[in-house]
Design brief:
The complex is a heterodimer.
Chain A: E1 24-25, E2 46-50, E3 56-60, H1 61-65, E4 73-77, E5 82-93, H2 94-97, E6 107-112, E7 117-121, E8 131-136, E9 139-140, E10 150-152, E11 165-171
Parallel strand pairs in A: 1-5, 2-11
Antiparallel strand pairs in A: 2-3, 4-5, 5-8, 6-7, 6-11, 8-9, 8-10
Chain B: E1 7-16, E2 21-27, E3 39-45, E4 51-57, E5 66-72, H1 80-86, E6 92-99, E7 113-118, H2 122-135, E8 141-147, H3 156-160, E9 166-172, H4 189-195, E10 204-209, H5 211-223, E11 231-235
Parallel strand pairs in B: 7-8, 7-10, 8-9, 10-11
Antiparallel strand pairs in B: 1-2, 1-6, 2-5, 3-4, 3-6
Classes of the chains: A mainly beta, B alpha/beta.
InterPro entries (chain A): OxRdtase_Mopterin-bd_dom, OxRdtase_Mopterin-bd_sf
Organism (chain A): Nonomuraea composti
Pfam family, one (chain A): Oxidored_molyb
Chain lengths: ~200, ~240
């Protein structure tokens, strides 16, 4: 049973069922990260997928930019409670990047320039559910938002959408990432409000 | 497995910090305790069942079942104006936490600490200062507190009292009191070089404030040679409320 807060009414915004429980809508784009913003020069940037059989698939910035791009429009939900609707991005679907990757692994550990990590089941990265993006709202992705390139996995809380992404390691066993070992939920489904460990 | 549950929280004391910020002390039966720097979710429920929740940093270390927050009211916010202007002693809200295992200071740590706060970003840093005092820690602390003008100061009386091993420097960005020689301006390299620790001391750096401030301060710390893994950041957007 909830406690009623005397006199509280709130500001209600019609969101047509697009805002998960406990979230509120914003129009700006707040920034969250645990440390300083890494600066990654494009001539030293690379993205790699390492399989459980120790096969590595690697892309330079040039090779990455030559891949077929998509422009997803998605709603994003941050565990700190804000949601932002209809955000527009440009980047490469993980389906494209995984096209030649042979794996039987079930788990992925995403890692970033600067040392950040986050984990999720591999299936949550495939079938049109995730992208490596380099543009936001028609502009180059700013460093504080994860530029030059970040992962977006919009159906999970946004900490899974690793900024400054550098690669994905495929694993037979789940390996909790940075926030997942600091009290946050291992999976992070906003519609089930899986914010913290045990939710 | 640990599970964070919503707990009833009764406001037992409140005091204004500034014209727009208020410190709230709640009694939360069964509160599991917390570390300095952690935050908590606050949930408000309207009579018809509509709810809104937000996260706020705790302003003080664990003290039995008491939880202390300082909340800055956000223009057009949903939760903060209620907490700052409406909530009265004896009223109830719900709390869930503690949350966050990264932006924390532990009393057993002996490393020098540099705290860099912008505006309401002082709140979790104050919790660390209070935790240090409460634990009788001798870890040397320096606080650089950037704020618009003297009327925006949180915890003014407490930070004025001598606290051996803690140095406090105010960095005014719009208007400074007359006795201050530093012109009002945004945080710069010299401020961190003079008021902070040399990188060779390997201090733990905690930077908290609005995004632009945190980006600037963290970049300056990197430029001074501090290792990125020793710079912990927490950002308070104007978004929130």
């Amino acid at each position: 049973m909830s406690i009623i807060s005397r006199g509280f009414r709130g500001k209600r915004r019609d969101d047509s069922g697009r805002v998960p429980p406990g979230q509120y809508l914003v129009d700006d784009f707040p920034v969250l990260s645990a440390g300083p913003t890494p600066r990654v020069p494009l001539d030293r940037w690379e993205f790699a997928i390492d399989t459980e059989a120790e096969q590595t698939h690697r892309w330079s910035w040039e090779e990455f930019m030559a891949l077929p791009a998509e422009t997803p429009t998605v709603d994003i939900h941050c565990v700190t409670k804000w949601s932002k609707l209809d955000t527009t991005w440009e980047g490469v679907s993980l389906d494209v990047l995984f096209e030649d990757v042979e794996t039987a692994a079930e788990y992925a550990l995403v890692h970033s320039y600067g040392g950040y990590t986050t984990n999720l089941p591999l299936e949550d990265l495939l079938d049109g559910k995730a992208w490596i993006v380099h543009r936001f709202d028609g502009e180059e992705l700013a460093p504080q938002h994860g530029g030059p390139a970040r992962l977006i996995v919009p159906h999970l809380y946004f900490w899974k959408s690793a900024k400054w992404v550098r690669g994905i390691r495929l694993l037979n066993e789940d390996w909790p990432g940075f926030w997942e070992t600091a009290g946050y939920h291992n999976y992070g489904d906003p519609w089930r409000e899986q914010r913290y460990e045990g939710d | 497995m640990r599970r964070l549950t919503w707990r009833p929280a009764e406001l037992v004391a409140a005091a204004a910090e500034t014209a727009s910020a208020r410190t709230l002390r709640f009694r939360v039966p069964g509160w599991p305790g917390h570390l300095a720097g952690q935050h908590v979710d606050v949930r408000l429920t309207a009579e018809d069942g509509y709810t809104a929740q937000r996260s706020y940093s705790m302003a003080a270390p664990a003290d039995g079942d008491l939880v202390e927050l300082t909340v800055e009211t956000v223009t057009d916010g949903e939760v903060s104006p209620y907490l700052v202007e409406e909530l009265r002693v004896g009223d109830q809200v719900e709390l869930r936490g503690p949350v966050g295992g990264w932006f924390v200071w532990r009393p057993e740590s002996t490393a020098p600490v540099l705290l860099v706060g912008g505006g309401s970003g002082i709140v979790p840093l104050m919790s660390m200062i209070r935790a240090r005092r409460q634990a009788g820690s001798r870890a040397p602390f320096r606080l650089l507190y950037s704020l618009r003008d003297p009327d925006r100061r949180y915890y003014a009386d407490e930070l004025r009292r001598p606290d051996p091993g803690l140095d406090v420097t105010y960095l005014y960005t719009r208007s400074a009191p007359e006795h201050v020689s530093r012109p009002a301006r945004r945080i710069m390299l010299d401020d961190l070089a003079e008021g902070g620790w040399p990188a060779s001391f390997e201090p733990d750096c905690y930077v908290c404030g609005p995004t632009g401030f945190v980006e600037a301060a963290a970049d300056l710390l990197l430029a001074l040679g501090h290792a990125p893994e020793r710079i912990r950041t927490e950002r308070f957007g104007p978004t929130g409320g």
